Amino acid sequence: MNAHNDIKKCFFDLYKRFPIDVDRGEGAYLFGKDGSWYLDFLSGIAVNALGYNHPAILSALEKQMKRNLHLSNYFIQDIQVELAARLIELTPFSKVFFTNSGTEAIEGLLKVVKKWARQNNKKEIIAFEGSFHGRSLGALSITIQEKYQSSFLPLLPDIITVPFNNAAALEKAISSRTAAIFYEGITGEGGVRPVSDEMFTVMNKGRDTYGYLIIADEIQTGVGRTGKFYHFEHTPLIPDAIATAKGLGGGLPLGAFMVLEHLSEIFVRGEHGTTYGGNPLACAAGLATVNTVADKQFLNNVEQRGYYFKSQLQHIVDDFKDQVVDVRGMGLMLGMELKNPAQSVMDEAFKQGLIINIAGGNTLRFVPPLIVDEILIDEACNKLHKTLKILFL
Ligand code: PLP
């Protein structure tokens, strides 16, 4: 079989794929079957929090593989309970529901919101322009981007759209009808844009006045990505619920939604469920990942390396001022917005051995594994600098 040739025959043409037939990964590197190798600062779209082949994950998987691969939620599964208890210990939340993906976590939370709204005579959900919460019909309804929504309208009703980081518009949109606000602390697919402090103030104030749910989509920002275990810890706001996924499973498909105590009785038995969610293999990898990332020193390193990476990117900007709008983000979730379409930069970076991608139009997104050190960051920055030199000097 030649995967390069067969890919067009087998799949919908939905992805522009990197021209590498991957053999294996190791740490922050990916190796092609042809002997090529790449520094991977995309990490399976912010999933491989500990990089490829991390010993803690491998040994947890090996142990669990020999016990059982799947049981279903009709059984008590120690590994699943241990992971849920650890997440509860690490956060203000008191109930966990495991899913297979971020989208499913958002879908579950939409059901939480819907039921809570019926009970409390509320109706509307506020979502921000440029948001990304997933592609199933519910999650897509609050993914306010025309390119994702337009072919699938109409979607859920009563979604109120507010321009990103426009606190005055948010204040205006909030009312006694508001059931929930969904936000990403830093937009992922929407261009690595951090939510402003003013927005958090308005969200908090509105919740005090009217009583609605604030839902943080921590799917990309969570599990250490920004230097705290969850992004909301950087903010003055405790969300009523969060969705988490991506890094949570350390490479296995695992997501979750978690709610504060006041929502812990929202579902009655049978109202929600999943066959695979909380699968023991995924939870074993998740527990190894969470136990590694939640360590104070580990999170400190992410924060410090984030500062270092950002400062090195800023040096690159100094040499290519004409090409760059700004560098933004937090921890190891950084973006560099270019004045022109970024595709040629992404393609040339790949030729130089650096894997990055584009988020929200012209923004290069950097989401390396959280284990990168300054040497790897320097290597990435050198490759990026060379890329820009080839293209623009
Ligand atoms: N929410 C955010 C912020 C995301 O970045 C993503 C995926 O990119 C999703 C939701 C959807 O998650 P998944 O692709 O795991 O379903």
Percent helix range = 25-40%
Bound molecules: pyridoxal-5'-phosphate
The biggest sheet amounts to: 7 strands, mixed
Report how far the terminal alpha carbons are from each other.
42 Å
- Going across the major beta sheet, what is the strand order? 4-10-9-8-7-5-6
> What is Rg?
21 Å
- If you consult CATH, what is the topology of the largest domain? Aspartate Aminotransferase, domain 2
- Which CATH architecture of the largest domain? 3-Layer(aba) Sandwich
The total of beta strands comes to: 15
Provide the residue-averaged pLDDT: 97
Supply the number of structural domains: 2
Top-tier CATH class of the largest domain:
Alpha Beta
Continuous helix count: 13
Q: Could you give the order of the helices and strands? A: HEEEHHHEHEHHEHEHEEEHHEEHEEEH
Low-confidence stretches: none
CATH superfamily of the largest domain: Type I PLP-dependent aspartate aminotransferase-like (Major domain)
Classify the beta-strand content into a percent band.
15-25%
Care to describe what's here?
It is a single chain. This protein is of the alpha/beta class and 393 residues long. The protein folds into 2 domains: 3-53 and 296-392, Aspartate Aminotransferase, domain 1; 56-293, 3-Layer(aba) Sandwich (Aspartate Aminotransferase, domain 2). 38% of the residues lie in helices and 18% in strands. It is built from 13 helices and 15 strands. Strands 4-10-9-8-7-5-6 form a 7-stranded mixed beta sheet, with helices on both faces. Strand 11 (324-330) and strand 12 (333-338) form a beta hairpin. Helix 12 (343-351) crosses helix 13 (374-392). It is globular, with a radius of gyration of 21 Å. It starts with a helix and ends with a helix. The model has no long low-confidence stretch (mean pLDDT 97). The protein binds pyridoxal-5'-phosphate. Pyridoxal-5'-phosphate is lined by residues 45, 101-103, 106, 132-134, 184, 188-189, 217, 219-220, 245.
